[in-house]
Amino acid sequence: MSILDSMESERGYSPRGPNRRPRWLGLVLVLLVLMVVLGGVILGVGALLGNVTGGSSAPDYSGDGQGSTTVAVASGATSAEIARALVDAKVIKSVTAFTALAAADERTRSIQPGYYQLHQHMSAQSALDLMLDPVARVNSVVIPEGMTTAKVLARISELTKIPLGDLQAAAANPQQIGVPDYARTGTEGYLFPATYDIAPGTSAVDALKMMTTRFKAEAAAFDLEKRAAAMGYRPDEIVTIASIIEGESGRPDDRGKIARVVYNRLENAANWPYLDMDSTTCYAIGGCNGPLTQSQIDTDNPYNTRRVSGLPPGPINNPGGAALSAALDPTPGPWYYFVTLNDQTVFSVTQAEHDRAVSRYNQENPG
Question: Under CATH, what is the fold of the domain 66-137?
């Protein structure tokens, strides 16, 4: 035995023999274990991120679904809140599948509050696509400024399927639907123009109450009753004037001046025994197209301001906030006449000025 062999024997190992293990083999085993552990961590984090972001691991249905259900989207709802409503209605399978798509699609921000007709068991993508299609939105009623009550009721019925007869019966009982105490002629003038989301199953009375409630809120914001009194008018007269402004004005900038023409005529009765407004005469005869005929002008009706002095008995349509504002704050000026041309509205002080404007109107609108 050599001196080297003797030293190795004393240290407890031999350079030869079947039990010898190289040091690098242990290192390889340690690295393999670390790789397995690290791989598990990576897979776990990936699964977690997939659930958070709505990746492929987020539970989801496939296809366009079946059946029909209505989902309500509240005002100011976040994408997560919309997703929760969809899950609760069994439209989609998970919140995460929808919110991930919504985060990547800016059009989601255009989803309006209201009611949506969807299917159950839809994929998140199909649900999102359908909500972005206006056809899915139901029971959303847009009432434009200046629409008469008869047309308002017809529009509500068409868009909500509330029977027209039920709406007409509700409108025939103004106190039942909450018109203000100063309303003297029914609902005309007090169904405030706006967009209303009417829940499925809403009664005719409750649908119209939404509109009278909105009117009273707007009137309170304008301090209508107090300001009307300060001007020497009743609040219902201000609403009537606002409805005439709405019926006569073709351009937003004209409202204040038209209001002034109305007040100038009303407050100079010696020279203006009649208000002489086409809009009121048209209302008296149930609507008109084109210039009034002499027989229409001669109609015996309290709303025909060509034949009855002062204001008509009540509003002739449902005015909006801008017309109410103009009625309460008319533009200062001396005008008594106006005529709307193709490119402008001409306001005049004298009959001669007005005649020239009417001549121009006739030239621009032959026949």
Answer: Dna Ligase; domain 1 (3.30.1490)
